Amino acid sequence: MKEPQRREFLKKGSAYALFFGALFGCGIYISPKLYAKNSFLRPPGALDEKEFLATCIKCGQCIQVCPYHSINMYDITHLSSVGTPYIDAGKRGCYLCDLFPCILACPTGSLRHEVHSAEDIRMGAAYISDINGCFAYMGKKVEKEDLKPLQSNQNEREATVYENYKNYEGKECTICADMCPYPDKTNAIEMVYENDKVFPQIHSKCAGCGVCAELCPASAISITPRYEEVYT
Ligand code: SF4
Ligand code: SF4
Ligand code: SF4
Q: Residues 95, 211: contact at Cβ < 8 Å?
């Protein structure tokens, strides 16, 4: 390499190093300041967000073992949380598996090892975000085209969820209340009848697992992360 080219190369290299260094530094500086404002649904048993970010080593073990493929990993666009696991309830909730393989697999306790049952889980809270969209409230039956094309082809558990879900075709919608995986589900969600209307009501035991939000064919339920709990 000739001298002028070498100098140009070194100049560009330094500029890139400065840029990425500043970006990385910014991420470290901003991270703790953002944690309180984010709206991420962490896997079950997660420590409080600040501690979670400080202890999770981004190994992806929880993601590997989840039989429902519920857990994703934040990419570089989420500077403060890059590499950490999250659940997007609109796409795939957490099915609160027996023995919580994600928790067992976590080597650091960022998913708390002392959590053994669904009663100990509080990922967030479900709320009815669009009651006028709710099929039950509007007296609309579930049509074939209303059912979401769920991820169902990877294993038996996912296939079972999809089979149960498809059974609602042509029926009145009670999907959220029936398919809630909380063990004593009427403490989490139930269909109620008031003023000639039927609709789901969320109760305080809701674990915020997101399954109702995933499956609702009307997208009438949302999950708020545990920092801002809301019940209807
Ligand atoms: S409890 Fe089961 S479904 Fe939920 S995140 Fe853990 S492994 Fe996945
Ligand atoms: S799943 Fe629940 S909230 Fe959604 S349309 Fe059916 S009854 Fe309404
Ligand atoms: S109501 Fe049931 S399905 Fe919905 S978030 Fe709560 S525990 Fe999960």
A: yes
The atom number, within ligand 1, closest to the CA of 69 reads 8
Per-residue pLDDT of 163-188, as tens digits, reads 999 999 999 999 999 999 999 999 99
| Ligand 2 neighbour 173 (Cβ under 6 A) | yes
First to last CA, the chain: 69
Whether domain 123-228 has CATH 3.40.50 = no
Within 13 Å, how many C-alpha atoms sit on residue 114's CB side? 1
Ligand showing the shortest atom-to-Cα distance for residue 43: 1
- Whether 187 contacts 207, CB under 8 Å: no
How far apart are the C-alpha atoms of 103 and 145, rounded to whole Å? 36
* Pairwise CA distance, residues 184 & 223, whole Å: 19
In sequence order, what are the beta bridge partners of 197? 194
The verdict on pTM exceeding 0.85 is: no
